[in-house]
């Protein structure tokens, strides 16, 4: 059995989802969002760092999957997302937990079957795959999708080769 923490970084809401994977069995342990208020950048990053640190302490994941940055229409938004992502990764790194990065299209393809799936399609499939009673909030669903993506791909030969070559897809 492996426990995976999925993270969907954001400067206002950082989604999280914790799943357990045992063979083909998937179970949602916890999901939600770290809510960030205020305008002070350092304070926001501290809240994200502390929130992820608390989750790690409480749930003890063995691996973490996080959504990689994609270019926004606005460079300022991409910078803020990168900073939130850095705070989350720093919280994980202080606990020496392996971090695995996936692009939004990799996550969508693993969960829905196509890399350009809508948010609603991702939410629906996350609900179905984890047998949840209700559709999770968008940020939480994205975090659960990252965890599910990693759960599905973590032992595949291409994924192992990807890790060995520094996180980028390479042909063998």
What does this protein look like?
The chain is an alpha/beta fold and 172 residues long. The protein has one domain: Nucleotidyltransferase, domain 5, CATH 3.30.420. It is 48% helix and 22% strand. It contains 6 helices and 5 strands; from the N terminus they run E-E-E-H-E-H-E-H-H-H-H. The protein has a 5-stranded mixed beta sheet. The longest helix is centred in the first third of the chain and has 19 residues, at 41-59.
Task: Output the CATH class name.
Answer: Alpha Beta
Mean pLDDT: 90
Show unreliable segments.
Answer: none
Main beta sheet, described? 5 strands, mixed
Shape: globular
| Counted beta strands | 5
Name of the CATH superfamily? Ribonuclease H-like superfamily/Ribonuclease H
- What's the CATH architecture? 2-Layer Sandwich
Count of all domains: 1
Topology, pairings included?
Blueprint: E1 2-8, E2 13-22, E3 25-35, H1 41-59, E4 63-67, H2 75-93, E5 99-102, H3 104-111, H4 119-130, H5 138-153, H6 157-164
Parallel strand pairs: 1-4, 4-5
Antiparallel strand pairs: 1-2, 2-3
């Amino acid at each position: 059995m492996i426990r995976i923490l999925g993270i969907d970084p954001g400067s206002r809401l950082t989604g999280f989802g914790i799943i357990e994977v045992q063979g083909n069995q998937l179970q949602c342990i916890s999901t939600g969002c770290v809510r960030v208020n205020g305008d002070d950048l350092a304070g926001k990053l501290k809240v994200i760092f502390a929130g992820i640190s608390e989750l790690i302490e409480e749930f003890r994941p063995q691996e973490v999957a996080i959504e990689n940055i994609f270019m926004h229409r606005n460079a300022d938004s991409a910078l803020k997302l990168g900073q939130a992502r850095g705070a989350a990764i720093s919280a994980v790194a202080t606990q020496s937990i392996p971090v695995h990065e996936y692009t939004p299209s990799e996550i969508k393809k693993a969960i829905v079957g196509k890399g350009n799936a809508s948010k609603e399609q991702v939410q629906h499939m996350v609900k179905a795959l984890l047998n949840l009673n209700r559709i999770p909030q968008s940020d939480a669903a994205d975090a659960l999708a990252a965890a599910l993506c990693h759960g599905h791909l973590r032992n595949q030969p291409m994924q192992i080769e990807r890790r060995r070559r520094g996180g980028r897809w390479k042909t063998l």
